[in-house]
Design brief:
The complex is a heterodimer of chains A (about 800) and B (about 70). Chain A has about 800 residues and is an alpha+beta fold. Chain A has a domain at about 265-445. Chain A is built from 19 helices and 16 strands. The longest helix of chain A is centred in the middle third of the chain and has 51 residues, at about 390-440. Chain A is rod-shaped and about 210 Å long. The two termini of chain A are about 20 Å apart. In chain A, about 30% of the residues are buried. The model of chain A has no long low-confidence stretch (mean pLDDT about 85). Chain B is mainly α and about 70 residues long. Chain B has one domain. The radius of gyration of chain B is 14 Å and the shape is flat. The chains are: A alpha+beta (about 800), B mainly alpha (about 70). The interface between A and B is large, with 52 and 41 residues.
Chain lengths: ~800, ~70
């Protein structure tokens, strides 16, 4: 490459104007002539910032360079590069110039300054540095690359990705898919338990009714036992009295008839009397039957049956029946109300868990107090507790029983009304018959009539007596029916045995069994109510869970914001029509994959941080080698391995190994002590990096730097490598070794252009008499430096 | 000049390569076994045109395929 620089400068800045097209070139010149500045300017042109660690030098350079034109020819991959620099636009801070560099043309075509990097690179190797300082710079540059990226982009990007994955997990776990099977099982088991308890309750209720009937039969049997015969005797005695009176009445009727025949004066009157008498007997019988029926009903109703009393009693019972019927739904609804209150309290508790306890749910208005969520929940629970303490089922049964009883009594009163009417009618008919007989008797002779009056009077007295006996008979018969249900003692005993067999209990244990079953029934009713509530709650919770899960599945399978997830997991596209359990299992799996993804992200990103810290620790060890160190982390060991490999490559050259390490096969770094080890002639050598002489260091450093350059940017067709300030460090032999090394590189096919920059060795050149010497003298006088080929 | 992401990736890759070389040279060595760097993930994380969903997609896809 041939490089021409035309710079306009001020206040003392100088820049040499030409670098000749020599693959190995030596530039010697006076100090301050601008050799190094030329290299720095070229580095700026290819995108580097050589003043990065020296802001003051940058400010000076920028302010003193007014403008510059640079032309590069003899290139590989292009004919000419032309640059027109505009330092006025350059940034004040020492940073990359980018588009602010100026205008750039490659073969006449304007390009962006960045395009130069793919065509040309410039390297500046300063021999004043030691291998250790180069290592430190290398470590620092690497550390900066890692940490700068982490702080400027990495942390934020890591956070964005991690939060995105966490959002996915939050979305999934909102519907708790891992619990769906458990919730389903709970709902199923709760429903099954409620059904089972319903069956048990029904069965136990039937048994309780059977036992109730058996105990009732046993009670009646106990009452009847020993009293039945006595009551039958009394009934027989009363019947006997009635029969006896009846006989007396028949005898009186005969006497009346006979008297009528003996005293009869008028055939017509006699016939009329006879008919009247028969008429009386007929209505007498009807009256007795009506009275008997009424007496029975009176005994049954327990009150004296009159039309007014019956009407009053019916009114009273009707009101009572209405009251009981009103009460029944409320008593039966209590378990439902308790469940409702507890359900509402549960929902309010959910709100409390979200810190809404003190939030006003119902605003105060003229008809309503102000209610907070917590206060409302407390009120619901108190009311549920109050209702739960009542023996709900027992109340309902007592109410039903009382309603049945009132209805029976109303039926009896309805029948009694008819009986009273019939009895009243029979009394009227009887009174008419009696009057007719008296009228017929009036047509009979006086004595006969008087006798007949007495006979009729006697007969009426017997009727009154019959009424009284008949009433007693009816009451006694009713009492016996109440006791035995119209059954005999033997029939009751047989019925009791049958009922006990049906109820599965022995007769002697029937009452204890009833008590026991009643207790079991109360407990079972309570458990049943609780189980039904639990089943309803579980079903409601399951329904909510299914609904939430459906929402999540829909979002994942159809939402635009989840398209990336469907691309990552293609089978998700088929998830929507699957069963709830399959969907839940899929969500659990996605959650697990998201967790794995987050773990991998954390591991990967923590590796970046770990390497940054490792490089930091490594540099600290180089700068302060004697400080105590904490135990090494895995990333300290990884960066040690990196440094070891780096140094190994530095010295991976026959020339270097021959010159510095007695032709050793391999040179290795021990990063703990910063020492180099090598084996030569079967003997192991070890030496700290700092123990090499200046010449050795400069040579090793130069070799190391070139080795580094050789590893990088091999695809760039044009590279300029400037080796600066070597004169102070390399003696003649080392310089010869370096030149041999550089010539070896050229021989190996390297296309790099190497420029060794040296201070002027002699002023003027030793031999100005030759043509070459004369040219050099002229160059030195004109430009202050000379350039020539470097050769061993 | 290479972007910040490329520079970081270059360093991390060098460290990863060095660790592999060290283990290859001494298979008995266990003190580097925990070094686990997913360069593919890091590449999308450090790409100039960063898209957090693209990174998440790569990570979840990898978990799904594993």
């Amino acid at each position: 490459m041939h490089i021409k620089i035309d710079a306009e400068v001020r206040r003392g800045l100088r820049i040499i104007e030409e670098i000749p097209d020599l693959s190995l070139c030596k530039i010697e010149g006076y100090n301050g002539i601008g050799k190094t500045n030329a290299i720095k300017l070229l580095r700026l042109c290819v995108g580097d910032q050589p003043f990065e660690a020296d802001e003051a030098a940058w400010r000076t350079f920028r302010s003193q360079l007014v403008s510059a034109s640079i032309e590069v020819t003899g290139l590989r991959g292009a004919n000419k590069i032309e640059l027109q620099l505009d330092p006025e636009r350059w940034p004040k801070e020492a940073e990359s110039l980018g588009d602010l560099l100026g205008t750039v043309h490659i073969d006449g075509t304007s390009v962006k300054p960045q395009a130069l990097r793919s065509l040309l690179r410039v390297y500046h190797i300063m021999a004043a540095e030691t291998p250790l300082s180069v290592l430190a710079s290398r470590i620092e540059a690497s550390r900066r690359s890692v940490t700068n990226w982490s702080t400027s982009q990495g942390d934020r990007r890591f956070e964005n990705v991690d939060v995105g994955l966490q959002d996915l997990q939050d979305l999934i776990n909102r519907c708790l898919p891992s619990q769906i099977k458990q919730d389903q099982a709970i709902a199923h088991d709760s429903a099954k338990l409620a059904d089972s308890l319903t069956e048990q309750l029904s069965s136990l209720q039937k048994r309780a009714k059977r036992l109730d009937r058996a105990v009732d039969t046993a009670d009646r049997l106990d009452q009847v036992r020993g009293r039945g015969a006595e009551m039958d005797d009394q009934l027989a005695e009363l019947q006997s009295k009635l029969d006896h009176i009846e006989e007396k009445k028949q005898a009186l009727d005969q006497q009346i008839a006979d008297a009528s025949k003996r005293q009869h004066r008028d055939e017509k009157a006699e016939r009329e009397f006879d008919n009247a008498q028969k008429y009386l007997v007929r209505h007498d019988k009807a009256l007795r039957e009506a009275r008997g029926a009424l007496d029975k009903l009176t005994a049954s109703a327990g009150v004296e049956l009159t039309t007014d009393r019956i009407a009053a009693e019916r009114g009273s019972l009707g009101s009572r029946l209405n009251e009981l019927l009103d009460l029944l739904p409320r008593v039966n609804a209590t378990p439902m109300l308790v469940a409702l209150l507890k359900g509402l309290a549960d929902r309010l508790e959910d709100a409390e868990r979200h810190d809404l306890g003190e939030t006003v749910l119902l605003e105060a208005n003229p008809e309503l107090s102000r209610w907070t969520i917590s206060a409302l929940r407390g009120a619901f629970l108190s009311q549920a507790e109050l209702l739960s303490q009542r023996t709900l089922s027992a109340d309902a049964e007592r109410l039903t029983s009382e309603i049945d009883d009132v209805r029976d009594r109303l039926d009896a009163l309805t029948q009694a009304t008819g009986a009273v009417q019939e009895y009243t009618k029979a009394q009227e008919n009887f009174a008419k018959a009696e009057q007719r007989l008296r009228d017929a008797a009036a047509d009979l002779p006086e004595q006969t009539a008087r006798t007949l009056d007495q006979l009729i009077e006697t007969r009426n007295e017997l009727d009154v007596e019959v009424g009284s006996i008949q009433a007693n008979h009816a009451r006694l018969e009713h009492a016996r029916d109440l006791l035995s249900g119209g059954m005999t003692e033997e029939a009751l005993a047989a019925e009791l045995v049958r009922q006990c067999r049906e109820a599965g209990v022995e007769v002697p244990r029937v009452r204890r069994s009833q008590v026991s079953v009643r207790g079991d029934l109360d407990q079972l009713r309570l458990r049943h109510a609780q189980a039904v509530q639990q089943a309803e709650r579980a079903e409601r919770a399951m329904a909510e869970r299914v609904h939430e899960l459906g929402d999540v599945v829909e979002t994942i399978t159809t939402g635009d914001e989840m398209a990336w997830l469907r691309r990552a997991i293609p089978p998700l596209a088929d998830l929507l029509p699957k069963s709830i359990v399959e969907q839940a299992a899929a969500l659990v799996q996605i959650d697990a994959w998201a967790e794995q993804a987050r773990n991998r992200l954390r591991t990967t990103y923590s590796a970046v941080g770990g390497i940054g810290t490792g490089l930091d620790n490594l540099q600290e060890r180089i700068v302060r080698p004697n400080q105590p160190r904490p135990e090494k982390t895995v990333w300290d060991r990884a960066t040690d391995a990196w440094l070891t490999e780096e140094v190994r490559r530095w010295f991976d050259s026959d020339v270097v190994r021959k010159s510095l390490f007695n032709d050793a096969a391999e040179v290795r770094l021990k990063p703990e002590e910063m020492t180099l080890t090598w084996v030569s002639g079967g003997e192991t050598y070890e030496r700290p990096l700092t123990a090499f002489s200046s010449g050795q260091q400069a040579f090793a450093y130069t070799r190391a730097q070139i080795s580094q350059i050789d590893r990088e940017d091999l695809d760039v067709p044009n590279r300029l490598i400037a080796l600066d300030e070597f004169g102070a460090f390399l003696d003649h032999d080392r310089m010869q070794s370096l030149v041999a090394y550089l010539e070896g590189r050229v021989a190996m096919g390297s296309h790099d252009q190497v420029v060794v920059i040296l201070p002027l060795e002699a002023s003027p050149p030793d031999d100005a008499s030759t043509e070459e010497g004369s040219r050099l003298v002229k160059a030195l006088e004109g430009r202050g430096y000379i350039a020539k080929a470097l050769a061993s | 000049m290479a972007s910040g992401g490329e520079q970081m990736l270059q360093v991390v890759k060098e460290v990863d390569d060095a660790v592999r070389e060290a283990i290859k040279a001494d298979p008995e060595r266990t003190d580097l076994a925990d070094v686990d760097i997913d360069l593919n993930v890091l590449q999308v994380l450090a790409a100039d045109s960063f898209d957090h969903q693209a990174v998440a997609e790569r990570l979840v896809s990898r978990a799904y395929q594993d």
